[in-house]
Amino acid sequence: MSKDRVLLAYSGGLDTSCILVWLIEQGYEVLAYMANVGQEEDFDAARAKALSIGAKAVFIEDLRKVFVEELIFPAIQANAIYEGVYLLGTSLARPVIARRQIEIATKEGCQFVAHGCTGKGNDQVRFELAYYALKPDIRVIAPWRIPEFYQRFPGRQHLLAYAAEKNIPVQQTIKAPWSTDGNLYHISYEAGILEDPNVTPPKEMWQLTVDPEEAPNTPERVTITFQNGVPIKVHNHNDNTTLTGSLELFIYLNTLARRNGIGRIDIVENRFIGIKSRGCYETPGGTILRTAHIDLEGLTLDREVRQLRDEFVTPRWSQLLYNGQYFSPELDVLQASLKASQKSVNGQVSLKLYKGNVIVEGRKSDSERLYDIEESSMDVQGSFSPVDSEGFIKIQSIRLKKWGMTTGKL
Fold first, then answer.
1. What amino acid positions are annotated as catalytic residues?
2. Quick one: pLDDT at residue 407?
3. pTM of the predicted structure, to 2 decimals
């Protein structure tokens, strides 16, 4: 009788390496899957490691371009943000990772998929809601919710001991056990000493960006061109570098932001399952793009359209991504609205990058006409007559006069 097959979302780290061996101990035939979404990883070494500890096959998929075009750029169009500060870097990568995992599991005849997400976190929800939406009959193994597993491994020290016993090579040590999760958009840090929200992260923790205090004393000036709210070109005025491809453009923006100390945050957030969590994040290129996009919308986006998008699309789109509900009917509706809202977001934004700051220095659009310099000018009357403001004020004041008469404020 053949063994049940399981496709494990494998990172090459401590948790999923131990899980891979543990699944084999439980009698499964384990295949490993790694998604390249831009994390700084030695994929060849990870492949060799997975095979050496028992994986029957390893699938490494380059999803960087689809990640940028299908998730990162729509997030920029939406000005996506969670609780006013978090740019959703972890959440954004999950849909493309989960989708490809289901595709491979189906092709390889796997009855199960597995992941190494903690039973207290958001990612278990994100992965599994995606799995079930894409393949309703799939079965999921989540070791960190199985008492036999989490009681055997109540702490990271126990995982390290198990890894030593099973000859599983790991980089993590008991001395510095905070965990990280990286992709092209960001990297996150949590656990260990970071669980105390009043502990300042050690300087050596930050992997992507230079300390803003140590960033270059000379600012870098760039211009980003947008079409329908999507960045299509970046030009560096310091060295005349110009890039246009979606993936190449985003990687370059990451490079610029990293060397200028841009994109660090340290927050306490509300997880979807109801637990508060402290996390530190670096989102270099995304921070630049979001700042530029918001500014260009001020010039090119109709007031009422922007208000509708800001009130309904942005918060709901962000919440759905954070909660793992990307593959849902409500997200489809929001995507259509988002696309429609961005038709006029065309133009260029000039930025100064300096010691952790993204400073807007100018913007222009050759195609949109909402901004009229003569109408806006205090020195030129243009087509707008100041006399018209009198009637506007009278109409707006009707209900306020009635309210004042009723309340008798003075």
1. 15, 94, 123, 179
2. 85
3. 0.91
